[in-house]
Amino acid sequence: MITTLATWTIGSGTLLIETGDITTSTADAIVNAANSRLAGGGGVDGAIHDAAGPELLRACAEIIAQDGTLPPGRAVVTPGFRLSARLVVHTVGPIWRGGTNGEDETLASAYRESVLAAATHGATCVHFPAISCGVYRFPIERAAGIALKTIAKSLREGLVNSISMVIFSRDTAKTWLAVGREVLGPPA
């Protein structure tokens, strides 16, 4: 189940901060915080692979066989298979190395490229996890600011109609809410 905590109107679109399990999303597309081999793993990546079924891993293996590993900041699309979401957009976020190795730009690129990939495949509603905020150790407040500014810009450009940040942990979601108020102003 996914619960909406806050909503902002940005251009003609909507940005939401929600809490819950992204694998239950009914959005057109969900974003997977993947590793560069698209091999599944822990956290949200493992949960999405488990929920989508083995077809997702096979589709990812085909992409890797054809194109090689996915660099940080880029995105590719597969079907959602057993998920309610029609599409899974796989992106690789940066590993935090102190903030002096282009991490901010790479994280912004991961969000931007994911929205573009989803829109190119006909998605109008996209749900994101908190990319790089788990084992990749990106500071949550910093990541939230970058993510919200980047997806707000995508909404202003009319790339999609709705973007949600679906944060698994309620405590982490509270941080995203505070940053959202700071970056976007008060929610509707």
Brief synopsis:
With 188 residues, the protein is an alpha/beta fold. Helices cover 39% and strands 22% of the residues. The relative contact order is 0.22.
Mean pLDDT score, rounded?
Answer: 98
- Report on the biggest sheet: 7 strands, mixed
CATH 4th-level superfamily: Leucine Aminopeptidase, subunit E, domain 1
CATH architecture: 3-Layer(aba) Sandwich
Basic shape: globular
- The helicity comes to 25-40%
Give the tally of structural domains.
1
Rounded Rg:
15 Å
Top CATH class: Alpha Beta
Instruction: Indicate the structural class.
Output: alpha/beta
User: From N to C, what is the helix and strand string?
Assistant: EEEHHEEHEHEH
Fraction in beta strands: 15-25%
What's the N-to-C terminus distance?
22 Å
CATH topology: Leucine Aminopeptidase, subunit E, domain 1
Strand order of the largest sheet: 1-2-7-6-3-5-4
Number of helices: 5
Number of strands: 7
Poorly predicted runs are none
